[in-house]
Structures
1.
Amino acid sequence: MSKFISTVLFFLIFTKIIAQQNSLIVPLNQLGRDERFDKFIVTMPVFLTIDDTIHTMDFEGMVAPQKLKIKKKYRGYNSYGYGFLFFPGNKNVNNPGFTNLLFAGIYDQHPCLYIDKNNNLDFTDDGDSLLLPKLTTDSLIFNLQSSDDKLAEITIRLKRLDYSSQPALRKRMNEYYMYFYKDRELAGIDYCYREQRYITRFGYVRMNNDSFKIGLFDGNNNGLFNEPENDRIITSNNADTVFESKDELHSFSISKNAMYVEYNGEQYEVQEIDKYARFIKLKHLTDNLLLGRIKPGKKIPKFEFTQWNGEKKKIKKFRRNDVYLYFTGPNVKNFSKDTAVLRQIADLYPDKLKVIAFIEVNKSYELKIFGTYANLNYLAGFREREIVKALSVHGLPSSIWLRKRRKVVAYDLKPEVFLDAYKKQMEMK
């Protein structure tokens, strides 16, 4: 009996060790930029405080503003202004969803920023002031903390606006605020700031000799990163500098149900998400799941794709051929090596097998250049979201092997693996 108990205990301990080995705790200790960070110019206007009065947000006259009186501020500056930052984590009864800011010495070389963190309109009891940048090339980065939970925070970047080379645009921007905010006076568009938000925290998943970025995206900007349907899990290649929060190939909404991440043919179950985005815990799966994809032996749906030269092709055109679909991009690891193997595959049995590569690029002309100069012997098309969604592609690189009439054989065979498998299949015939 004692030998049996010892055996059971050994088995349980061994199983626990294996489970721990398959688990990865990924620190998310870096700030990430989503697709809006650089593309969108969000202007934070600075209005003059006249008689220590702050007018709350009115959204271009859609909401009746309140007039708030500053209770206390540091004296000695030659000018004062106010602005707001959207942050629902900081409860503000008088200006819901926004945090009040006071700008002191607006026209000085280095204005000072006071943040009303406790929303009491006293700008002297919230800690030290922050020094705003003098030059348009400089910026100020700081955190806003939730009033209910100090660990829940978002990171803001303020940068001076530069209209020195755009006098017509400067004029239009000043006129815009004069028209929509008649009850207050703008300090001048040159003394306002561009607002950018770091609402993604990311780290690196390292498995064997491979790695990729994974992050959490705070969709509602409240400083919490684990809220179902609001927040998202995002992945990207190491070479990517921007996280695509709206692209289903690279991100998905956090759910109360089981969640899985796939990269380079490897799958991971999401075991735990820290609500403050300090870490995410994953479990590496040794047996791959279908994750919503069409079962082997079943047909994939019909679709049309656009080739690099603009020509359209329908997948059903290749119903009499075996087809190897490969999803990749220039920033994906082993792109050059894999596309070289695609050439070999396409040359092998050109009458029986068709190779179609769907390539993700930042600009459409990049694929056109690639197609023009690469002398392709396989089809190269744009990676379109509709196709990704229809085929349930979860990451790059990915592949699907189809038999005749669009029937699935296997998923996620790397080009060299597929090449060997297809050769053996043809030799057996």
2.
Amino acid sequence: MTTVIKKTLLYQLLFAICIYVPYLNNYELTFAIWSFTALFTIQNHYSLGILKQLFCFSLILALASIVFFFKNHEFYYVIRDITYLIKPIIGLLIGYQLCKKFPEKVFQSITHVAFFIAIIHFCLIFYGVIFFKAITVNDLRFYGGYFSDFEVYALIILIFHEKFELNFSKEKTLLYTIIIMISAFMYLARTNFIQFIILFLAIKGYFKINKRAITILVSVIIVSIIGYSTILYINPKRNGEGIEALLYKIKIAPIEPFKTKINRDDWKDFNDNYRSYENIMTVRQITRDGMNSVLFGQGIGSKIDLKQKVWLGDMELRYISILHNGFMTIFLKSGLLGLFIYLFSIYFLFKKTESNIEIVNNINLLLIGTGVFLMFSNWVFMGVYNLSDNKSILLGLLICFREIHVKTNNQNRIN
């Protein structure tokens, strides 16, 4: 019994490391640890549910690799693209395989790791404020981090702890909820605010097509329009501080990724709508290369010429191989065919596993919410291909957990 507990703790520790390492913003380290964990926990059997997801991402990689043989891309970018495109495959495997090692502790493990990440986040913010006088929104995010989708998932699980059979004491549930909620808010990330709303609505069942759901969704849309109109009326300035900086980011959010004309000579217009600029240059380059590129992309190792150098992170670049937009990145690598396959992987998340088990139905709702969020996340933040993202692990974990409960229930009914 003691040996079993120790093994479970080992795998939970591996899970914590795999979830946290992307926060260090070192993709080489992330790739190494993820690869080791995937190989260390490899299984003999995989379900059809996880194989569908793995097949979609593998097909995108295979398609981009085939196109590469008809191109002449630099070897460095080819190797880098392979590691980038394989990332969600490894993440799905890690989540699925680790879930089988501690199936009874899945949601507890998620919340424990999120609590640990939240404490680290507070320490980083404290460090920035005390030693570098970080008080603006940009400074707080620079030292504390730019987003944390994982903490939002943990927060949803804590809020709906009964639905996910968390079985924490009231005191522990309240403590974890408060700490993780404050930490998630302190990222001041628009995507995380939207993610929370989407997942909350999903767990409440408001994405089902019925009169009540439509009423709630319409109400949310109306409140959002009123709130956005208020922000427009306030008209926060670009160089504002504190909450004004956040309001300015919200103000430009609806057009930032969708603008079709950017003035490169106007640095404000260029910086505020840089995501759109990447998309514009990608579409121009691919369509200029002909119908084959539109259908099948330009393969692994392909790059976009931005026509000028820009600062991305701590590097000044003119050519980029990975964009902010996940859909555009796949379009660049594998064309419309790859994009269609990618959308199919998201579609699989909407395919519910019919069951009379409450927790399975709640996981279905969480996966539906994830599918909705990925449609948005991919457009502005690369979705599961984001180098600092760990959602693919969570997806593999949830898919496996759902299957284990369905299988166990079916066996109990037979017996």
3.
Amino acid sequence: MAGIHGSYIAIYTVGIILMLVNILQSIFRKKGYLFNPPAMEEAKDEKTFLRIRVLYGVSQAVMLLLFLLCFIYVKNYVAAVIGLFAGCLLPIALVFLYDMYLNRQNERAV
């Protein structure tokens, strides 16, 4: 049981560091380097790209806060793993959904 106790704390620590790095990347990365494929960013104008950065940064910050609350109240290995994957993947998924929405709006306008 002691191994599980130490591993969930390690997962929370890695998750917190990773989410903080993701927030900083969303602020400081140059256009074309935040997401893969870079063409997703380069095809957008500066205002839309700024919205993508804000959406990613805010959603990552919300997921970090939820992850910290999970760390405080839920001392469980499975919760730590689920929180890590959801916390890192959900902001990316939101940005890709927003990008799909923008692409569909552009297709309808043409």
4.
Amino acid sequence: MPMSGAGSGGSVFAAAGRSIRVPMGYVFLVVAAVIAMLFGAYSVGHSRASAKALADRRAQSAALLDEPAVADPLAQLGARVNPAGANPAPTQTRTAAPAPTTQAQRPPAGPGPNQRAGTAAATVGRDPRVAGLNYFICARLREEEAVRAAEFLSANGVAAAVTPADNASLRLVVATRGFSRDEMKGGEASALRSRITSLGRIYKSQHKGPTDFHDVYPEKHQP
């Protein structure tokens, strides 16, 4: 059978000796469906490519963040000087040399008129005397005056302490240099007594002290 011509309302296809008339509306639908499928495939492919590119950029950023710091040239130089496995040379730190320790110098024999008593602390409340030795008792005063007198003596080369007396309201001002019985006959004990009395005159005249230590006397400590 010969193939008939295309009509105005559809298309004619020849198959197996027969002609099939397809409406043009179906043809348009098929073409539109094919175009839509192609566009959808393109969109899916483009989205996947964009997602992969974004993932690659994120991976590169993470790699940059985890990248170790730039090597210090000085550290590399040190590594070449001290190769791995070798014991590094110990780092020496220069410290200031300690000031030489010197013994306190004995102050001059007589303090000046403006010298302040109490520049050396006197022992207060703890009796430093050793049983059996002899000590010079410089004065018996009320505690405040006894402390001031002992500080004056200590500041001027005669170490002194404030110790309890047999009267609860008084304190003893004691030179803490002890002497044995034989030493009391020597010149050192005599020199200490003279030193105490000479300081006593200065203490009373220049520092308004209540005593000049004129009645200083030795006493054997027997606790």
